[in-house]
Amino acid sequence: MTPPESSPVGTAELRGDIQDFTMANTFISCYTHCIFSTKGRRNLIFRDMQERLWAYFGSVAREHNLACLSAGGIDNHAHVLLSLPATVTILKAMQLIKGGSSKWINETFPAAGKFEWQEGYGAFSVGASQKTAVRTYIDSQAVHHGNTTFEEEYIAFLNRYGVEYDERYVFG
Asked: What's the whole-model pTM score?
């Protein structure tokens, strides 16, 4: 069966012509909701530093060509909604945000003691149509955690996204 002449790709394939049909640019829509806790889930993100820390996540992201669309959390963990470019992996984004922010916290708030993030993190895909809902969720962390612990929230995310895990190793 011969494709219609209005189908240049199909026609070229059938004729064996060599044509370059590559894309001229790369277009990415990659939104990721990342969740990470303080080392040992200790309450080290004090209220007086929270707004500055969330803003700092955004500055680290911008410095590395990421977009931090939302950031928030409570005393023992943080959430960020990132838009990742094709050149940055989730792992790299988390290294930059967690590493940069822990250094900043230790320099900016030395009286708070040594600050560290937990080694791991959760990263969950977000569809473009869900960005607003995720932003609202991140912005309402204080209210949300009035009746839900970080551990309950994190396990719920793993279950909702179908992530297989061994409960013995989730929290270290």
From this structure: 0.84
